[in-house]
Predict the 3D structure of the following.
Amino acid sequence: MPDELDEIIKALAHPLRREILQWLKEPERNFPDQEHPLSIGVCAGQIDQRAGFSQSTVSAHLATLQRAGLVTSRKVGQWHFFKRNEDTIQTFLQRLQQEL
């Protein structure tokens, strides 16, 4: 898992990506106005709006998080929804604790 570990560490190196993960930890609190059920994830447009950056910038950050396995995405109609991948996050934290 060294490559995966490095990929996750690189993904976490940017403050906006860490902030997005924090927001997704409590979607009910951070995205209360979403019309779709939060059980399917948070709509990319909601994340764009909260981040205050362009859609393309936020999309690139979400793609980095997804490549690292920290979030999963699901397309419903024309929308993309994102959720934290808790299994990957927990495995990463355990590995980090073992290695450090």
User: Anything to note?
Assistant: The mean pLDDT is 93. Residues 2-99 form a domain with the Arc Repressor Mutant, subunit A fold (CATH 1.10.10.10).
